[in-house]
Amino acid sequence: MALKRIGTQTVKLSNPPSMVSTASIVGPKEGDGPLKDYYDVILEDDLWGEESFEKAEAKIQEEAIKLAIQNADLSPNQIEYLFSGDLLNQITSSGYAARQLEIPYFGLYGACSTMTESLSLGAMIIDGGFADKVVCATSSHFSSAERQFRFPLEYGAQRPFSSQWTVTGAGAVVLSSTGNGPYITYVTTGRIQDYGITDANNMGAAMVPAAIDTITRHFKDTGYNPEDYDLIITGDLASIGKNVLLDLMRKEGYDLSNNYTDCGVEIFDNVRQDTHAGASGCGCAAVVLSAYIYEEMLKGNLNRVLLVATGALHSPISVLQNESIPGIAHGITIDNMIF
């Protein structure tokens, strides 16, 4: 009997795991953005001494995981499971990072929703009594993602204004059955939503329906309202998707205008850094959570946060076949106190 399930899509954790440490590593463009003071490591270049962007991404994720474990005063052999994913074919960056770490590994693909997917599963594993300490991580890299999903960088294709800039970076979180918080208290698992968007340069529009579905379902399942949160933040809808979400949520009866933003809006200064609509990528929600949200919660400036990371579940092949883009969004509530 599913004793911890409430409503149709949400789980209320009986023994909420604590986020005992985080780590964030970003590229130089991200490190020049508004959140630059929150990151643990800012790279001087996108290759970080590697011979390819793909190898650099694997290194970024591996080092973020190791740093998060170190920040928790733990060693890798004390971690029982690693949950991680990325954007590349067969999530190779995560697989190669896990190869170096020798931690029992669950590889995940939720596109840019992967950080909250990993945290959802990691939290439920701990709450269920199957582990005491797990690591949840995600990475992306502008150059590796761009040449996989769009064009070779050397082609110099002009980017439309609806396009987003894939974050070069990785975030990692250590969850523990013991600790002083912040705690993951609720998990709302998303459903695929597909409204027929086929433009791979308009990710915000493709993912908005999934974000709306998950947020409204979370409110209905938990009984919470927007004003119960200090911050409601989506993964990477960026500026276009953010505005669409605000409009459509009003039609659903929810006004998010006072406490809602999007990770894809916060990472870059879109005008000064010429990122068009804003940020995207698996690393988008991962670094905002691991850096900004976590630090602000430790300071007590934020006490309850709803993080809903969004993902576009397309592939290079599906785009070439003119398939529509399925969207997914997974939500977690993070509380400074357990009620």
Task: Give a verbal description of the structure.
This protein is of the alpha/beta class. It has two domains: 15-176, 3-Layer(aba) Sandwich (Peroxisomal Thiolase, Chain A, domain 1), CATH 3.40.47; 183-335, Stage V sporulation protein AD (Peroxisomal Thiolase, Chain A, domain 1). It contains nine helices and 15 strands. The protein has helices spanning 53-71, 92-101, 114-127, 142-149, 203-222, 238-251, 263-266, 282-299, 316-320; strands at 5-6, 10-12, 18-26, 41-42, 81-85, 105-107, 133-140, 165-166, 169-176, 183-188, 231-234, 260-262, 279-280, 304-312, 327-335. The strands form three sheets. Strands 1-2-10-15-14-11-12 form a seven-stranded mixed sheet, sandwiched between helices. Strands 4-3-9-7-5-6 form a six-stranded mixed sheet, sandwiched between helices. It has a two-stranded parallel ribbon with strand order 8-13. Helix 5 packs across helix 6. The radius of gyration is 18 Å and the shape is globular. The mean pLDDT is 94.
